[in-house]
Amino acid sequence: MTSEAHPVDGTHALRGPRLPDFPWDSLAEQTATARAHPDGLVNLSVGTPVDPVPEPLRAALASVSEIPGYPATHGTPELRAAAVDALLRRHGVTVDPSAVLPTIGSKELVAWLPTLLGVRPGDVVAIPELAYPTYEVGAKLVGAEVVRLAPGETPPAGTALVWLNSPSNPTGRVLDAADLAASVRAAREAGAVVASDECYLELGWEAEPVSVLHPSVTADPTGVLAVHSLSKSSNLAGYRAGFVTGDPDLVARLLELRKHAGMIMPRPVQQAMTAALADDEHVGVQRDLYASRRAVLRPVLEAAGFTIEHSHGGLYLWATRGADAWDTVGWLAQRGILVAPGTFYGPAGQRHVRIALTATDERIQAAADRLS
């Protein structure tokens, strides 16, 4: 016997949060236009690494491939020690090894952090005015209200979580220590947790990025989390390798919840990540590649009538011709170059496009030739 309240087709059980459409699905027409170019597509839209995974990291991945047991959610002690050492060596940040928690890339943590922190419907999640779309998605998964903060704007009452991002995706804006410290103070006054997305911290060009956990920002990590990714710095996007660190109590809470939920980084990836964190040479090589591609692309964009704003760090050029973002996307697509409209990142991006540096040297030069 069935109940009308619970139909047998399962439609009642499938109700869930209403999320925005996946942004890149809306680029199908422009993708087709760009792909039809006689010299082929130059895809500067998503930001997917194109350079090979460094050989020592691949060797580390394979070195533990015979281990059959379940991996530890907290990661191996060696992985956590490597993260601690890398943060100190590269960024002048000191954290406790127990406060390092590997994540399956950074995107899954960004999406599920409000859930894991217990953010409730009616709470506010504050995100940058122009922001990585998954910050908003994570808030909507728990039914929270999303507020976009312009630079220097403080979070409203009822804010449970504040996202920071420097260098910014999409704008490349770099927040200095004073900016970050002011944001941390404002979040604390609102009673909010601070989560700083530091995925592009290795990529400072015209400004030196600083971690939210640096002593020049705060001497006390209470209520502060820093999210790191090896996707760009080590070309490990396909491995899904990231970690979160900061407030030991918050990290311990996240660890317990992730144990229950089975959010565990595979053991071979843990080994590759350990190798990546222990080696700075490959990070420098990759940084130089992005710097050289940026040096090729930026001047030809400016000569073609674009203004590049911010873009002092990170993996993107934030560009405008003064036209509607989608018109600019179409103009570039006719030249076989695919980019992302600024509206993917918030209403304030309606006259900008985000141009990624993630293409091979040959494809970057092809884009430069077409723009010239």
What does this entry look like structurally?
- With 372 residues, the chain is α/β, with parallel strands linked by helices.
- The protein has eleven helices and 13 strands.
- It has helices spanning 28-35, 55-63, 77-91, 107-117, 133-141, 177-189, 248-261, 267-278, 281-303, 325-333, 361-371, and strands spanning 42-43, 100-104, 124-128, 145-149, 159-165, 193-197, 224-229, 241-246, 307-309, 316-320, 337-338, 340-341, 353-356.
- The strands form three sheets. The chain has a seven-stranded mixed beta sheet with strand order 2-8-7-6-5-3-4, sandwiched between helices.
- Helix 5 links the parallel strand 3 and strand 4 (145-149).
- Helix 9 (281-303) runs parallel beside helix 11.
- The chain is globular and about 55 Å long.
- The chain starts with 27 loop residues before the first helix and ends with a helix.
- Mean pLDDT is 95; it is low at 1-8.
Layout of helices and strands:
Elements: H1 28-35, E1 42-43, H2 55-63, H3 77-91, E2 100-104, H4 107-117, E3 124-128, H5 133-141, E4 145-149, E5 159-165, H6 177-189, E6 193-197, E7 224-229, E8 241-246, H7 248-261, H8 267-278, H9 281-303, E9 307-309, E10 316-320, H10 325-333, E11 337-338, E12 340-341, E13 353-356, H11 361-371
Parallel strand pairs: 1-11, 3-4, 3-5, 5-6, 6-7
Antiparallel strand pairs: 2-8, 7-8, 9-10, 10-13, 12-13
Helix pairs in contact: 1-10, 2-8, 3-8, 4-5, 9-11
Short description:
This protein has 372 residues and is α/β, with parallel strands linked by helices. The chain has eleven helices and 13 strands. Helix 1 runs parallel beside helix 10.
